[in-house]
Design goal:
There is one protein chain. With 324 residues, the protein is mostly helical.
């Protein structure tokens, strides 16, 4: 079967399947060798979508780099538009902070490039502001997040705006993590349920926020209810940060044995599928009970050192020391 037949077959197959990734990579390699720009372009768009959905962001980043270069050179995207490439730019820009090997300078340059492309296309800067908000947190600079949060909330909507469910989920997370206001966090999350908002990951990943928010208000019954709903929804998935937040809740409520059990149940997935930042976030949550896990302790310290060194601060070291 040649790559054209493989491509035609792939178009009939179910999307969002891990098995699609190697087939797409083979199609791209063959199409490139045959200078088949149509299939090379289309297959890379699909690879970004498929790889992003299953958490293989490095593969998505490689495909996007090829496409954005083509876009900058003014070459045809064969049916795809500026909106299509900028929509995927949001995904890429939102994940580069998860790789400690990508420098601060490279991250800032990529974010600025996205901003300039949004402006050049007469789009709102709303995607840029929300990307910078979360990047500030992930780079250990939460003091910058409030500025970008305000800019995001006051920027205009357009066709590149995230879905309402995602945006409301982000507000709930921001209020809890940055403003340390569990009441505002719960109010923001409740809008998702009141208006029956949903998307691929919401409200599945919202329950972990609510578990911690309710616990902060000593509402133990609702905290536990959201823990149970949340863990059922996110265990063994790419939503590793949500699993980590649920472990954090268990540590706060001194359910250490259950926390250990959940760590062991998800550890293989974290270490094989998780990006470096996912692994760091997960292991920091587990760090209070890693006394008998020297290898995981060493990995945690290594990740903390790598990210703090990249970020130019001691943000994650401080978190590790606070947890222990």
């Amino acid at each position: 079967m040649n790559y054209i037949e493989e491509w035609e077959l792939l178009l009939t197959m179910p999307k969002k399947q891990l098995d699609n990734i190697p087939l797409l990579e083979h199609i791209i390699q063959s199409a490139d060798a045959c200078v088949d720009e149509i299939i090379s372009t289309n297959a890379r768009f699909q690879l970004i979508d498929e790889a992003t959905d299953v958490g293989l962001y490095e593969k998505a980043l490689l495909a996007f780099s090829w496409l954005v270069k083509r876009y900058e050179e003014g070459k045809s995207l064969y049916g795809f538009s500026t909106r299509d490439i900028l929509w995927r730019y949001k995904w890429i820009a939102g994940t580069v902070t998860y790789f400690d090997a990508i420098s601060l300078e490279e991250i800032e340059a990529l974010h600025e490039d996205m901003k300039q492309k949004l402006l050049a296309g007469n789009f709102s800067l709303r995607p840029y502001y929300v990307t910078k908000m979360w990047a500030s947190i992930e780079l250990g600079k939460p003091e910058r997040a409030s500025y970008f949060f305000d800019q995001w909330n006051h920027s205009a909507d357009d066709i590149l705006t995230d879905c309402r469910a995602c945006e409301q989920h982000l507000r709930a997370g921001y209020y809890l993590r940055i403003e340390k206001d569990p009441e505002k966090s719960i109010q923001a999350a409740q809008v998702i349920f009141d208006r029956r908002m949903s998307c691929r990951d919401v409200p599945d990943t919202t329950y972990s926020i609510l578990a911690n928010a309710y616990e902060a208000l000593d509402d133990h019954q609702n905290a536990w209810k959201n823990f149970e709903l949340g863990y059922k929804a996110v265990k063994h998935t790419k939503n590793i940060e949500s699993v980590a937040q649920l472990i954090d809740y268990l540590v706060k409520t001194e359910r250490i044995e259950l926390a250990k059990s959940i760590m062991k149940e998800n550890l293989d997935n974290v270490l094989t599928v998780g990006l470096p930042y996912d692994q760091l976030f997960f292991l920091l949550a587990c760090s209070p009970f890693l006394d008998d896990e020297p290898e995981l302790q060493n990995l945690t310290k290594d990740l903390v050192n790598r990210f703090d060194q990249r970020n130019g601060n001691h943000y994650f070291l401080t978190k590790l020391q606070h947890n222990n």
